[in-house]
């Protein structure tokens, strides 16, 4: 996989390069500042981009803005955003388009190598990868009709929004896949969302609802 990285912290940036190359990927460009990100993405047209939200010179939303603009010019460009904190507005804006190939992880997730690489693979394949804390805050911003969900349905919805499949949800909650399917059906009914047999579409539907 060809990857572009944007991270101002030199140690973290080089660590990501080493991690990804050790896993067999090719880092075609690494940027330390906001103005360098979009040109690198447009020049290399990578299979995926790993971008920090806040980059020099302003340390505001340079990385995210570059990602959004790049996805306009390169539709479907997979982007995995890293952030030190949960920034709900940024997460919602990135996900607002309803397209796949997006992820938002807290930086401490990078220390969990297997989870990080799995998240990057899901995003590159057109799926989603959201940090549980991001999902929690997006859900907390919605009150009705999420209040109609049972505690178990809340758990299933949170895992769905992270991009997990039925089998993984079942293993995580120690229940059967049939039970997971029933919970998902109930969730969609209560949220007024159309049922779907596509795991990808159902995640996007949930994210669209949470960001509405």
Keywords:
10 helices; alpha/beta; six-stranded parallel beta sheet; globular; 212 residues
Report on the structure:
By secondary structure, this protein is of the alpha/beta class. It has 10 helices and 6 strands; from the N terminus they run E-H-E-H-E-H-E-H-E-H-E-H-H-H-H-H. A 6-stranded parallel beta sheet has the order 2-1-3-4-5-6, sandwiched between helices. Strand 5 (102-106), helix 5 (113-124) and strand 6 (128-130) form a beta-alpha-beta unit. The two termini are 33 Å apart. The model has no long low-confidence stretch (mean pLDDT 84).
Oligomer: single chain
Approximate strand percentage: 5-15%
> Strand-and-helix sequence, N→C?
EHEHEHEHEHEHHHHH
Mean pLDDT: 84
C-alpha geometry: globular
Low-confidence stretches: none
Helix content: 40-55%
Strand order of the largest sheet: 2-1-3-4-5-6
The tally of helices reads 10
End-to-end separation = 33 Å
SSE blueprint:
Layout: E1 2-6, H1 10-22, E2 26-31, H2 34-44, E3 48-52, H3 62-73, E4 79-83, H4 88-95, E5 102-106, H5 113-124, E6 128-130, H6 132-140, H7 151-161, H8 166-173, H9 177-191, H10 199-211
Parallel strand pairs: 1-2, 1-3, 3-4, 4-5, 5-6
Helix pairs in contact: 2-3, 7-9, 8-9
């Amino acid at each position: 996989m060809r990857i572009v990285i944007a991270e101002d912290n030199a140690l973290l940036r080089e660590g990501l390069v080493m991690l990804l190359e050790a896993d067999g990927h090719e880092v075609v460009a690494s940027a330390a500042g906001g103005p360098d990100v979009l040109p690198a993405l447009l020049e290399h047209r990578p299979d995926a981009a790993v971008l920090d939200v806040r980059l020099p010179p302003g340390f505001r939303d340079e990385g995210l803005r570059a990602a959004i603009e790049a996805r306009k010019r390169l539709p479907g460009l997979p982007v995995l955003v890293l952030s030190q904190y949960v920034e709900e507005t940024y997460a919602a804006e990135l996900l607002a388009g309803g397209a796949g190939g997006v992820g938002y992880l807290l930086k401490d997730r990078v220390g969990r190598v297997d989870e990080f690489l799995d998240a990057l693979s899901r995003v590159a394949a057109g799926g989603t990868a959201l940090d549980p804390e991001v999902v929690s805050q997006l859900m907390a911003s919605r009150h009705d009709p999420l209040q109609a969900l049972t505690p178990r349905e809340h758990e299933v919805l949170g895992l769905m929004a992270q991009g997990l499949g039925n089998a993984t949800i079942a293993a995580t909650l120690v229940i059967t896949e049939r039970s997971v399917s029933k919970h998902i059906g109930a969730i969609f009914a209560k949220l007024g969302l159309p049922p779907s047999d596509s795991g990808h579409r159902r995640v996007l539907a949930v994210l669209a609802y949470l960001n509405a």
